[in-house]
Amino acid sequence: MKDLYQILLKPLVTEKSTDLRESSNKFCFVVDTKATKAEIRQAAEELLDLKGKILNVSTMRVRGKPKGKLFQHRRGRRPHWKKAIITVEPGTDVQIFESI
Fold this sequence. Notes:
Elements: H1 4-7, E1 8-11, H2 15-24, E2 26-31, H3 37-47, E3 54-62, E4 66-69, E5 75-77, E6 81-88, H4 95-98
Antiparallel strand pairs: 1-2, 2-6, 3-6, 4-5
């Protein structure tokens, strides 16, 4: 198994993820592209102290966007990444998002 800190890379803070957090108790994270839902659930339970409070884990792969010219005639691309949306029980606070 991978190190838990290599599975959950960072919290994802956008307008959409903030709305999900406030209305539906869903928290978004950028995760390793090869991580499974079971590994993401285990990492979140141990790192964020959510033992038994996670209801659902949804994942999606986000394709990188093409960028403008990086060199004379070549076009660049942002890297692909994976997003996880973790649904927790109502009333549960996640410490990472409390300080943001």
